[in-house]
Design brief:
Number of helices: 5
Radius of gyration: 14 Å
Order of helices and strands: HHHHH
Structural class: mainly alpha
Number of strands: 0
Oligomer: single chain
Strand content: under 5%
Distance between the termini: 31 Å
Number of domains: 1
């Protein structure tokens, strides 16, 4: 888990990703692994930390779709 409900409501609120990721990085030494488990690789992560949420969404959507396609083909 990257952020629980409390963190979302109290710590993140309207902060840009670059700020709240820095906060979580201080307490979560495995934050990169946490993001990977949410289909956010290093390239996508870098777009998030640039506060380019539209690009982040686009890249992550593509990653999610490719993951689903790979799972579907693996099941055949």
């Amino acid at each position: 888990m990257i952020a629980d409900e409390y963190s979302n409501q109290r710590l993140i609120r309207a902060k840009p990703p670059k700020e709240y990721i820095a906060i979580f990085s201080e307490t979560n030494s495995a934050i990169q692994e946490s993001f990977k488990s949410h289909l956010v690789d290093e390239f996508i992560f870098n777009n998030l930390t640039k506060n380019d949420f539209a690009e982040f969404q686009s890249l992550r959507s593509i990653k999610i779709l490719k993951t689903i396609e790979n799972m579907a083909f693996a099941a055949i």
